[in-house]
Structures are given as structure tokens and as C-alpha cells.
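#dry-run=false #mode=assembly
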Amino acid sequence: MANIFTSSIGKKLIMSITGAFLILFLTFHMIMNGALVFSDEAYDAIVRFLGANWYALVGTVILAAGVVFHFVYAIILTLGNHKARGNIRYAETKRERGVEWSSKNMFVLGLVVILGLLLHLFNFWYNMQWTEIIGAHTNSLGMSPTDGADLVRYVFSHPGYVIAYIIWLVGLWFHLTHGMWSMMQTVGWNSKVWMKRLKCISYILSTIIVGAFMLILIILYVQSL
Amino acid sequence: MNFKLKIWRQANAKAQGRFETYEVKDISADTSFLEMLDILNNNLIHEGKEPVAFDHDCREGICGMCSLHINGEAHGPDTEITTCQLHMRKFHDGDTITIEPWRSAAFPVIKDLVVDRHAFDKIMQAGGFISVNTGGVPDANTTPIPRADAEESMDAAACIGCGACVATCKNGSAMLFVAARVSSLAKLPQGKVETLSRAKAMIAKMDELGFGGCTNTRACEAECPKGVSISHIARLNRKFLTAKFKD
Amino acid sequence: MAKIDSRIPQGPIQEKWSKHKAEIKVVSPANKRKLDIIVVGTGLGGASAAATLGELGYNVKIFCISDSPRRAHSIAAQGGINAAKNYQNDNDSVFRLFYDTIKGGDYRAREANVYRLAEVSNNIIDQCVAQGVPFARDYGGLLDNRSFGGAQVSRTFYARGQTGQQLLLGAYASLNRQIAKGTVKSYPRHEMLDLVLIDGKARGIITRNLVTGEIERFGAHAVVIATGGYGNVFFLSTNAMNSNGSAAWQCYKKGAMFANPCFTQIHPTCIPVHGEQQSKLTLMSESLRNDGRIWVPKKMEDVEKLRAKKIKASQIPEEDRDYYLERRYPAFGNLVPRDVASRAGKERCDAGYGVNDTGRAVFLDFKTAIARLGKDVIKARYGNLFQMYEKITDVNPYDEPMMIYPAVHYTMGGIWVDYNLMTTIPGLYAIGEANFSDHGANRLGASALMQGLADGYFVLPYTIGDYLSHEIQSPKVDTNAPEFEAAEKSVRERIAKLFSINGKQTVDEIHKKLGHIMWENVGMARTKESLEKAIVEIKKIRQEFWSDVKVPGKNEEFNQELEKALRVADFLEEGELMAKDALQRNESCGGHFREEYQTPDGEALRDDENFAFVAIWEYKGENEEPVMHKEPLTFEAIKVAQRNYKD
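#status=ok
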């Protein structure tokens, strides 16, 4: 056990576990956002529940650690793998048959996701949980930090934000379609038969998660018109 | 058929390499790719130039010696094929064909298109065997092995150790090669005994020798001339992690 | 003549090997550690021998010309390996395997060796299964078998069409285990260029590092040659491009006598030659003859239409097909031995019935088998072979029959060895295809793998101890000895001479010329005239080579043209000895077919009275005629008869 994370498979295991954790978070986040479509009060109730309480803060720290680990190990792996490829690259390359674009561009997709995440943190976390943590009563927009529904509706009435978020979500979708079955492969829960099933499941789940986020986004924008 | 060939030339491991362009004429469509290179070399010798070095031996797709990256693909444009089985009928008259050596940090170039794959032997020496001496073994039919297991073992054992998986992997990873051996032996009762220690030893050696890690792109199985599946990598991952958690 | 002592143990054939093992000396573990053994070649014979010797505790050095021991040409063997397990309950036995092998070899093999081979065949299968060789299995989980030519029982074990590969990977794995333990040291990309004798004993080798060109010396208490056969004399053969006879030939020139050089196997089922640019021929496994039927059209008009591509083979009706093997040999049908099948194919093509544009091809058809068993069963049995055929020819053999023609495949002749597998040079051993001992004038299918592994796992590791037990007092071999000095000097001179010629012909061009002469005159059918002609012409080409060859580059680099030149220089001498041996053997037997000596229906006509011997050639010097010695072959356990595959 001692040196498991120094091995190439061990490092991938970290990507796999943190990745799985992030998928779970995304799922909860999606359900929570869904509440907004039906009732602003219900959404605000959840927002209050996840304010600067000890359990929400612990969750936030764990979540942040997961993201950081996922990101740091992605960099370590990518640099190591780049080195393993050698100094001279092929003059000509072709995409191998049956190989998906996303599988070879996970790092780039990951960067898109991270950039989107920073925007998202600025838009919401900074104006909600952070405002509560520092003990302020109004955020930079002059709203109450627990007034989540209004904040969300405010942000998504801007077409620029809507477009930026859509690009982010598309990147996330590509990242997820590969990431989901890949994490199962990494821990060894795959076989010739399950390969097809896992890929199918990955596509369905990624589409449900990303699709729901996007749908909510569009509904909110339309409602703001 | 006539072709223009853009070939990587490099005098030795330390020398600077570069592309050179050559022309070959009147090649029959039934000529194999390596025969086409034989013809080029014969011409080059007559012209007083140095022939192109490339690895080859059995020329029937089983020894794993041939190792060319042709037009951006390991073993060229066809599926489940080695370079020696590739025939010129797969190309069009007048094509320019780019030929490069396997490129990976663990496979340094020896000369022109020849690379050093000694690292594969080292990985095998780390644990790619069943610890049994000659003699003193039970009768071959003492342990029945389910046919499906024997077949799956054979699927993995079909690996010819050519290195196309490493050559095509964007990470220069040898996971498919290692997995083929670990998985083949893991499916047999004789090999099961040492599966966990074998997985650990071979992966440790692979990492040590400068191969990259697997990111599940599946490029290796797409280019593998013997169609070895990445499901064997899943088995290797499972065995490796089990072994590590038990430590 | 005292040198030629076959050392065959006395007593009944069934007891010879066990009696011999009991009588020969062994070396204690403490002394084994002090003894060095060099093994040249890493095919089935070399890898299995080196691994086993390493396990026993000797210090082993192993050399191969490829980048890894796993590339050796044993890997290309497709069909299978024979053993007398009798798992199929079809009344197989050690004796029957022995008998079939002797008969298949047309009574020109040494009885005692062949019996021993059959005896240890069962251990090989046990050993390979223990090593994790994934042999084909039946639904009950037990091992499956198929049939091969020259046998009426099913005794061939197989791993799809990749049996050689799987067996070699087994031996390679055992070898790797010893390399990891440090008992074996591996030298890939090293080619042996000379043998070093000190006081008449084999004491080391001179090698060329194929990457750097460095000439190196290695000393040992014994040297084992496991470098395969010399089929590439013919240029076009099923051998790998780098397979060569040079290591064995250097031993011959240092005094190891060469036996039966003319015994060459022509394999009946290879993909036909397509043109001048071809570099090698591809074998289609003999196992295909289990289900494939060989035929040519009965009517000349169909032949002409086929050649003009006006009709396809599948359009020719059943009644117009001549299944000539089934017609001529009803008892064995398509599963006659290789030499018989090859000659029958040639006979039909010579009569004008060849089915491709060169007139040198016959059909191997799976129509009947697909109708009987279904495409899936055929695919499961031969899928990879069918795929290989399609990749090369662009024809789908599920729809149209394969086209095949005989091609050079294996050399039964080789370095002469005694019962201990020791050559006429003390301390020099030869195993596998490199020696001559077990296949007589024709090798049966699936027996080469058996012999390589028998020699390497179960024979040599015992018999070498008998010699080494006398060497325990010998110190480490000093590679600074004058003998090493001299050998290295001669190697350097040979290389320098090749570069100095700077002529007009490439090595391949000369090799092709040699191959052409060999195939036309010393090939499937030989006559006194053709052989005499060959001897004259080979001499001429040899002169041409040494005055007009062009070897580019220099020695101190990776230089494939130099490698080839050194090998072809030896082929040019080997070819001549083959022709000489064929010329003295005034009979037909197995793969050696002299047109003057045939039965009225075209079968090989042996002359047991005058030619029941092993022809052993002794090298006498550069421009001297070699001298032939004879080892008489006596058969005690079986009755010698004309081979009969008809009824």
C-alpha cells in the first residue's frame, strides 16, 4: 500500500477516485439547480442550508481538495507522459480508428472546465458562501448571500454569461463521456463485454447531467426575457 | 506504381536525424511494403548512397521485428496488420509516403528506422514468467482449464511484442504489452499463483524504464496488429490494485 | 575415422535412453557454478537449453542476432507439436510416434535418437502447460489435438495457428526468469562469426555486435549451436530474412563435420511466387490439410480459363476437379507427408495443370469442410491463417480456394552429432534444426518444435554434464589466448576484404542468382546433370561475389548489408556442399528426389543396400575437396520397407 501512489496506475487511481467524487458532486448540484425551475423558495432553502455552516464548509473543503488533487495529478501525469513520448515527435499522425477525440484531449478539456469553474466560483461562491464566511451581509451585487435564486436569475439574464456557461458545459460533457468509463477501467471494473455497456452508461449519464444544467440555464434565460 | 518516400534518416543514436525524400518506380501492387524498401535500398547501393536501415525478419506477421510508422500510423494504413503484411495495393500511384521510426523515450533510435526495444525484454524479465523449472511437472491434463479461459488467455498471448502500442500511444505507455502478459497468465491456473507479484513487478519495471502511464485512449488496441483488447489492461489494473492494497 | 563415434547405447531400443542417463556422469552443484556455457541462438532449442542449463546452475551466455530472444524463427511455426500422449484414445504410443517419424524420414534417421525423441515428447507437453502455454482445449477443459501429415492418429497439440509462438514464449519466459536470476546473461543483436578451439576443444566464440560493429571474444567450457537451418541458401524460402547457416558453417570450417547437407524439405503449402520483386515465401500451415482438399482441374480448358481469369475456381464443378492426393494416396489422402505432397503438386504443374499465370500453383479448397462444419468452425480453427492469406493475396479463402505451391522450408541436414548431441569437436554441441539427427530425409509436420524442445529441455542438459564433468578442473577460459587472437584477426580480415571489393553487384542480387541455381538444380527434383551443373555455376558465382560485390558503409556501425554479405559468403559454400552431397546419393529418399531413381508410378526409390548411411562431410581447407565419411544406419526395432501411403 505504501508506495501505491508513486506507480503509474496508482496516480491514475487518484484521478479516478477524485473524478468519481466530482461526478457525484455534479449530480447533487444538478438536482439542487433543478429546484430553481420549480420554486425560488425551495432553492433558497437549500442555499441557506449550504451556507457557512460547519458541514457545508467541511464539504466545501473536501470538494476543493478533490478538485485540486484531480488538477495537480492531471498536470503531473500529463508532464510525465509527455516526457515518455520522447523529444522528437512524429511528423505525421493520424487519429486511430475508434479512438475518441475527447480521450486524447482530456487535459485541454480539463483546462476548459477549470476556467469555467473559476468564472462560476466568482459568480456564485464568492457572492454566496464566501460573503457569509467573511461575515458580510451583502455581496458585491448588494444582494443578501442567502438570496440565491435572485442572484442566479440575475447572472443568467446576461446572454454573455449564458454563452460562456454553454461552452463550459460542452467541454464538461466531452470530459465526462471519457472520464466516466475511464475511471471504471482504471480501477479494473471493465471487460470486453462491459466495455460497450460502460461507454453507453457514460454517454447517458454525461448527457443527463450536462443536459439538465444547460436546460436550467436556458429556462432561466428565457424566463428573464 | 510510383511513389515518393519521405524517410527519417539518422546515422546513429546520438546523431541528429532528418527527413530525406526518395523516389521508387515501377512497383507492382502485389509487392509488400518491405519489398518496396528492399528495391529502394538496392537502388541506393547502386547509386553509392547508404541504404535505409529497418528492422524485419519473418515477413509473415509473427516475429514482431518490423516496426515502421507509415503515414502517421503504426504498421501503416490497415487494421490488424504488421508492416511486413502491408502491400502496396493499399496505396495509390503517385502517393507520397512518410516513414518514421517508433517514437518513444523508452525506444531510442539505433539507426534510421531501427529502434531499441530492449526495454520490453527487461519488463518480461521482471516477472513475465511462471516460476517452474524444467522437469517435475504434473501431467498436462491434470488440471482442466475451461475452454473460455484458455481462449481468453490465448487472445492476450497473441501479442508479438512489436511495440506498436507504445509507438502509437500519446503517452508512450507499455500498458497493453504488460497487460497482455499479465492477463494471459492470470487466466490460467498455472499462472494465477504469481499474478499479484507479477503485476507489481512488471508495472514497477515499466515505470522505471521511462514508459508513460495509461490514459485509456484505446489507441493501442486500435493499432495492435494482433487486436489485443484493453480489457486486459482492466484486468491488469484490477490485479495491480488488489496487490497493492494487500501490501 | 575414430572421430565419428555415434555413441549409441547398447540394449533394446526402449531402454537405451534410461540406461544411458544412468551411466553418464553428472556435475555437482558446486562445480556447475564454475562452468561457463555459451548458447548461440534463442529459438526453441537455444532458449529451452539455456533456461534449463541456467536452472541447473551453470553460467550461461546466450547470443541472438535479433533485438530479443523472442524473435527467433521458431516463432513462425504455425500448426503444432507432436506428442505420444494418446489423449484421443486412437491407439497412439511412443512406439507409433517413433515408427511414423522414422518412416516419414524415409529410413534415413538414426533409430536411437528418434526413439528418444518420441519418448520425451510427452514431457514437453507437460512442461509447456506448466509454463502457461495456452494450448487449445476441448469444452471439458482437457487438451485438444489435430492430425498432421504422415500420421493416422491425432497427436498434434496446438495453440490456434501460433503454436511455435506460444512454445517459444514459454521457453523465452523460462529464459527470462534465469536472466533475472543472473544465471543466464543475454546478448541480443550479436552475431557469432567464428568458433575458437583451444587444444582441439571448443572454447569460445567471436561475435560482432550488430549495433556498434565491435568484434568481441567470449570464452566458455562448452559451446552449443542452436542457430537453425540453412534454407535461405535458396534465397526464396519460408525462413525468416535473417535466418542463416553461418554459425554452423563456421563450426564446419573449424572441424565439426556436416551431415546430409542435401536433405532439404520442400513444404507443399506455401503462397506461390508472384514476381521478381518477391523477398520471401509465406507458409500456410500443414494443419490446413486437415480440412482443406488439394486439387487442380481435370480439363486443360478450365486451366486456361483460370489463367485468363475468365472463370473462378469456385465455378468449376466437382466432377471436373482432380483431387490428386486423394486419388493417388487413398489411405492418407490430403495428409500424406510433405515430400510426397510437394512432388505430387509439382507433377501436376509440370503436366501443365498449374492454376495461376505462372503455372506454378494448385488449389487448397475448404468448400467441402465449410459445407460440412460451417464457416464458424473453420474460422475458429484457421481464422488467423485465413486472415494472413487474405492480407497477402487479397483473396478471401472462405469464398475462393487458396492457391499454394511448394517452397523450401526446413533443412533436415546439419552438423553431425553423436547420441549426446556433441559434434566431432569436443565441447561443441548442436541442437534443434542445426543438427541432423532426428528427421532423416524428410521431417514430419509438427516434429520440428518437438525436436527443438526435446533437445533443449530434456536431452542436452543431461548429456552435456557427461562432458563437463571432465572440465571441472579447467579454469575460466582466457580470451587473451593466441587462439582467440587469431580467430578475431581472421574475422576482421574477412570483413575488411568484403569492404575492399567495392564491386558492382549488391549482396541481394548475387544471393538471388545463387537461389535460382539452387532451386532449378538442387531443388525438388535433381539429376546427375543438374547437380554437376550447379557445382560449376555456384563456383562461378562465388568468384563473382568475391570480385564484384558491393558492401556499403563501414564495420563500426549498424550495417545490415555487411551482415547479409557475411551470410551470403557462407551460403555460397554451403550450396556447393549440398549439391555434392546430392550428387553422391544415387537414390531418392524423402525430400531428396533424384529423377533417375523413381518407381514406375513416380515415388521415391530408395537404395537401402548402398545408401543406408549418414553422409558426413569433413572440411579440408579453402581450395580442397571435402572428404565424405559414412555412418551406417542400422534398424533393429523396425523393418525397413518402401514407404506406402496408398493403403
